[in-house]
Amino acid sequence: MAGCLRRLTPDEIPIAIVFLTGETHQGKLGLAYAELHYGASDTPAPQPSLTLKEVDAAFAELATSGKGASAVRAERLAALFSRATTDERDFLARLIVGELRQGALKGLMLEAVSAAAEIPVAEVRRAAMSAGGIAEVARAALAEGVRGLARFSIRLMQPVLPMLAQSADSVDEALERLGTAAFEWKLDGARAAPRNALILDGEAIALKPDGSPRSFQVTMRRFGRKLEVEAMRRELPLSVFFFDCLLRDDEALADRPPEERIHALKVSLPATAIIPRIVTADGAEAARFFDDALRHGHE
To answer: What is the band of 104 on the pLDDT scale with cuts at 50, 70, 90?
Structure first.
């Protein structure tokens, strides 16, 4: 993938990034397999000729809605597939219906951008987290190098990507890797990152009357609703708990030591709004903390 990225023009890089991570700039295009089958009913092109910009423009037309949109979509889809080779048709079809969308692809893409631009992956990851996405970060990295990444910083009203993490099979294994480490309860809720004078990271979760968590599936009933929103808000209230502070008083904290970020969290919120946390190198203490999280229905 790094070699592919090096061959692209700056305007092509963001398009390639979203395609290779299984997404499109237009979001879900709402096409069914039957429509794709109809659009690909003629003979595939013998040689590749489609460009990234042409495909992106075609997707923009496929995303149209309203009166007469179905006919326009069918015509544009047929025109797109008539110029696609067999392999390109397979890729486009899976991209359109969302079969290529995998969270792991974004991690691989960060590494590919790092290799292509010859910039440490930690720098690319930091910029992508602050920018809320990879596409524009990739363009800056490949066109301008490490200096291009300096303009990406955490700011209010801009999405922040979740930080990537690694897993351990046990508390003892985590301590073997890290030595003294911070342990926190893992709530099975929906990510919440409110923004005002602060940018916080946390989880919104539905709780039972006794304070134990409802299932993740129940919590997610509150999200993406268009009907009976107020009734569901009364029926299924959410509680929110936080574990990190990314910005306070216009100061970005994401690159600061965890101790500073947790201090900012504690001076900004009541203790009841902060996810339980300990810092220890003692395996027995960490195991007791883990067991306590499980007893309360968390991880």
So the answer is: low
